[in-house]
Write a structure and sequence with these properties.
Elements (H helix, E strand, L loop, with lengths): L30 H15 L9 H12 L4 H11 L3 H8 L13 E6 L2 H19 L12 E6 L11 E3 L2 E3 L4 H12 L16 H9 L10
Parallel strand pairs: 1-2
Antiparallel strand pairs: 1-3, 3-4
Helix pairs in contact: 1-2, 2-3, 2-7, 3-4, 5-6
The structure holds FE2/S2 (inorganic) cluster.
Keywords: 2Fe-2S, Iron, Iron-sulfur, Metal-binding
Cofactor: [2Fe-2S] cluster
Protein name: NADH-quinone oxidoreductase subunit E
Length: 220
């Protein structure tokens, strides 16, 4: 007696292959910049028993120099830590704090995850998009503001939340967010709702996250 054939349902489908990860910008640093980055990276790497553990702060360090991750920055991290550029890219593209496009002085992220969205986050993003004349992911022509929509920042009890260079501005409305962005563009950044007493620029924030002095060379 033959065994009846079974139809096995297809549980998964394959998707189209995605393009390889690539970075833009210059491929090399000028000699003086390379010397400065090398000196500062020496201090960072020395804090870790395994040099590769320094990758996250080194990515912030090169981002503080360039405003985003350039080909030169990725290659610098790989060379400095004995990694391949593919290994660096796999980490750099996992965390949303590392950016692949040039970033304005202030990275304004509007949370549009579920709670913030229903509390007004969608309206805030739509209003800022119209006011600034840019789409999420783009930067104003004067280089002051990069707008993006962000996922939940674990601050749902303060919804809707706007983040500027990863500092919280709680319980926003379209009107208050418009004032916030106007102040940023006027060079008068307001204090965050909590946490840091004052806002830093995107590059200054990246230096803080890298754990190096605010100014290159050690001055703060
Ligand atoms: S949904 Fe916006 S912080 Fe959680």
């Amino acid at each position: 007696m033959s065994t009846p054939s079974r139809t096995v349902p297809i549980m998964f489908t394959t998707s189209e292959p995605v393009p390889p990860i690539s970075f833009d910008g210059p491929a090399d640093y000028p000699t003086d910049v390379l010397a400065s980055l090398t000196a500062e990276s020496d201090d960072i790497v020395a804090r870790y028993p395994e040099s590769r553990s320094a990758l996250l702060p080194l990515l912030h360090l090169v981002q503080s120099n360039d405003g985003y991750l350039t080909r030169a920055g990725v290659a610098f991290c790989a060379d400095r830590l004995g990694l391949t550029t593919a290994q660096v890219a796999s980490v750099a593209t996992f965390y949303s704090m590392y950016r692949q496009q040039p970033t304005g002085e202030y990275l304004v992220g509007v949370c549009t995850n579920t709670l913030c969205a229903v509390m007004g986050g969608d309206a805030i993003l739509a209003d800022l998009t119209q006011r600034l004349g840019i789409a999420p992911g783009e930067t104003t022509p004067d280089g002051s503001v990069t707008l993006e929509h962000v996922e939940c920042n674990a601050a749902c009890d303060h919804a809707p939340v706007v983040m500027v260079n990863w500092e919280f501005f709680d319980a926003q409305t379209p009107e208050s967010a418009a004032r916030l962005v106007a102040d940023l563009q006027a060079g008068q950044p307001p204090a965050p709702s909590r946490g840091a007493p004052a806002l830093c620029t995107f590059r200054q924030t990246a230096r803080l996250l890298a754990g190096v002095p605010e100014q290159p060379g050690g001055a703060s």
